[in-house]
């Protein structure tokens, strides 16, 4: 079989997708109109032209502005449902979806509105698409730990509607240890723990995500290849990295896709996975990430198989369920 066909058709899990980053410009304009929210762009094309980023912050500024059109439960449902249909088309059988409640509660949208809209889409995906979808609540690291604690409090009535917590937004200057106390509390609550680390930030942030926050997975983690001792730790403890190649390209983490270190991570025995991050902003969903990365870097069918296996190993589905996907 041709490699592109194998990549497209192989069953896979997605473990690093920000649902607000799946909001396509067309749907964003539709929501802006129906909610009577002003967008600082004249058209879909005008907005797409603004998707030319130089680093993480230049993206986040536009991403948070775009999320301003999300007001009603229906908006959150529609956004997630559109993503879940793309996931099904890309043979994603299981997806763990990040959401950023602080982006919405700060604008007066309630936690209940956000969680109910997203949860309803996840339920419908299981019933109608055969896609297994769960939610992971992310704290914004540019805000305070106290703000994160308030957010956790607001989410507690919906505790059964998310499986874990993560840490995202502006990395440099906001090390994982800033959130030591709130992650310790989440751990006591039995939540799964992940954090973005080593996207733009140094290997030191990956170390503290592991040793202080005690996360089970690292989101991105591509800077780890600069620290041989860290590479050894990640391999030995089988700590997964949720790598997002097209995101790294768009945010200039690597100058060209052929310079990406995914092959190096896999060949070092790390549990690396491929994910889309913010597909509406970075130029592609899961299969676009697989196809373009393999084309650019010359990875093989053996790497493809390894990535598919890794995606289920790294997921938070139960051990019994997991065996079915092997
Ligand atoms: C994000 Cl690419 C990336 N990095 C950190 N935080 C984020 N939130 C949404 N996308
Ligand atoms: Zn991310």
From TrEMBL:
<dbReference type="GO" id="GO:0008270">
    <property type="term" value="F:zinc ion binding"/>
</dbReference>
<feature type="binding site">
    <location>
        <position position="278"/>
    </location>
    <ligand>
        <name>substrate</name>
    </ligand>
</feature>
<comment type="similarity">
    <text>Belongs to the metallo-dependent hydrolases superfamily. Adenosine and AMP deaminases family. Adenine deaminase type 2 subfamily.</text>
</comment>
<feature type="active site" description="Proton donor">
    <location>
        <position position="199"/>
    </location>
</feature>
<keyword id="KW-0378">Hydrolase</keyword>
<feature type="binding site">
    <location>
        <position position="16"/>
    </location>
    <ligand>
        <name>Zn(2+)</name>
    </ligand>
</feature>
<keyword id="KW-0546">Nucleotide metabolism</keyword>
<comment type="function">
    <text>Catalyzes the hydrolytic deamination of adenine to hypoxanthine. Plays an important role in the purine salvage pathway and in nitrogen catabolism.</text>
</comment>
<keyword id="KW-0479">Metal-binding</keyword>
<dbReference type="GO" id="GO:0009117">
    <property type="term" value="P:nucleotide metabolic process"/>
</dbReference>
<feature type="site" description="Important for catalytic activity">
    <location>
        <position position="220"/>
    </location>
</feature>
<dbReference type="InterPro" id="IPR032466">
    <property type="entry name" value="Metal_Hydrolase"/>
</dbReference>
<feature type="domain" description="Adenosine deaminase">
    <location>
        <begin position="11"/>
        <end position="326"/>
    </location>
</feature>
<dbReference type="InterPro" id="IPR006330">
    <property type="entry name" value="Ado/ade_deaminase"/>
</dbReference>
<feature type="binding site">
    <location>
        <position position="18"/>
    </location>
    <ligand>
        <name>Zn(2+)</name>
    </ligand>
</feature>
<keyword id="KW-0862">Zinc</keyword>
<dbReference type="GO" id="GO:0005829">
    <property type="term" value="C:cytosol"/>
</dbReference>
<dbReference type="GO" id="GO:0000034">
    <property type="term" value="F:adenine deaminase activity"/>
</dbReference>
<protein>
    <recommendedName>
        <fullName>Adenine deaminase</fullName>
        <ecNumber>3.5.4.2</ecNumber>
    </recommendedName>
</protein>
<feature type="binding site">
    <location>
        <position position="196"/>
    </location>
    <ligand>
        <name>Zn(2+)</name>
    </ligand>
</feature>
<dbReference type="Pfam" id="PF00962">
    <property type="entry name" value="A_deaminase"/>
</dbReference>
<dbReference type="InterPro" id="IPR028892">
    <property type="entry name" value="ADE"/>
</dbReference>
<dbReference type="GO" id="GO:0043103">
    <property type="term" value="P:hypoxanthine salvage"/>
</dbReference>
<dbReference type="GO" id="GO:0006146">
    <property type="term" value="P:adenine catabolic process"/>
</dbReference>
<dbReference type="InterPro" id="IPR001365">
    <property type="entry name" value="A_deaminase_dom"/>
</dbReference>
<feature type="binding site">
    <location>
        <position position="277"/>
    </location>
    <ligand>
        <name>Zn(2+)</name>
    </ligand>
</feature>
